Amino acid sequence: MARTRGDDLASALEVSERRRQESQRLSGVGFWELNHQLETLYWSEEIFAIYEIEPDLNPPSYELFLSLIYEDDLDWVHRAYQAAVNQRREYNIRCRVKAGAKAKWIEARGVTYYNDDGEPIRTIGTAQDVSEIVEAQQKIEDSVKEKEALIQEIRDRAEEAEQANSAKSNFLAAMSHDLRTPLGAIVGFSEMMQARVFGPLGDRRYDEYTNYIHSSGMLLVNLINDILDLSKIEAGKYDIDDEIIELKNLIGESITQNQVYVRTKNQTVRVHIADSLPNLRADKRAMLQILNNLVSNAVKFSSDGSEILVAARVDDNGQYLVSVSDEGVGISPEDQKTIAEPFTQFAAYHTRPNKGTGLGLYIVDRLMRLHNGTMEIQSEPMVGTTVTLLFPSERVV
Ligand code: ADP
Fold it and tell me: Which residues have CB under 6 Å of ligand 1?
């Protein structure tokens, strides 16, 4: 039989329909059309597949569509659709639907056409299962929320720790202040007794006890001063007040303050600083405290008659280096690891008469950090120790 033009058209239509169905199946996008006059709804196969319902048993209708929507979403979906039709806008929503026993997220888009009187004739649109996308987005949102909650928790903890630390610092500051007053009396009166201001003490043993009272009082004063500095540093309240320092003078001052101990041990302190050495920009009080701690350690931990060297120079990188070296007992490599931690003291030292607080090097280290500098220790047991302070080149004047 000869093929007619009608046959060709029919087969072209068939091909086009097959292509449409194939592309919908592959993309997962279904097509729907609502006829407002006839109140009929058309669903393509893919829409039935999305809702997982049998096409033959369920003729599509707007009511069927609404019955598949989750109760919670029903109201706003209906309103969004009506609003789009009334306002002549495109309609684009995402909502949860019941598909068999499962819940799915679908994205529906649509556009309405109107007759000359402005009445809606038909709305056509697409529907797509976007569950995977929504779930992935949900996961990202959940993980963002989780991270935010974690960050908040860390912030809360840090704040709590800060408050606890500040309470500790305030307590230490208050306690130290209260302790200093009675200690002033202990140190002051024992000094008067040592000087026999009102005549002899009587028994020889009182001389010895007076010396003990005085040295113990001084130890406590030093401890309290160190604790006060420590609490200030830890509370972030130790402000560095930069000024230009002539280091040679400051070293001289520190040596003078340690002179009594140096003389008692018959030690020599040498200062090695070139006349051309530039000045240093630093906090004067902190610098004196640093030098005092290092010089007094060098005196304490080296034997009678030994030599102590205080030196300063600018190295090839422009860093300002200040070092205090002694020929003393030294520090073992193991002990060097923890030496800058608070209240660290090593066994050999406890046999020595003028005990310290174990806070000296920790304070030096922290004060150096406030100057953007560092503290380095080189030491060999029974040979000696060199503590070097390194200031960044910006501090060289
Ligand atoms: P303190 O001197 O008050 O004990 P430091 O923090 O200054 O506290 O020093 C901690 C410990 O490090 C000392 O007790 C001592 O054991 C050791 N140490 C510090 N400086 C020296 C040094 N120059 N030589 C040997 N040991 C030292």
Answer: 293, 297-298, 301, 326, 328-331, 339, 344-346, 349, 356-362, 385
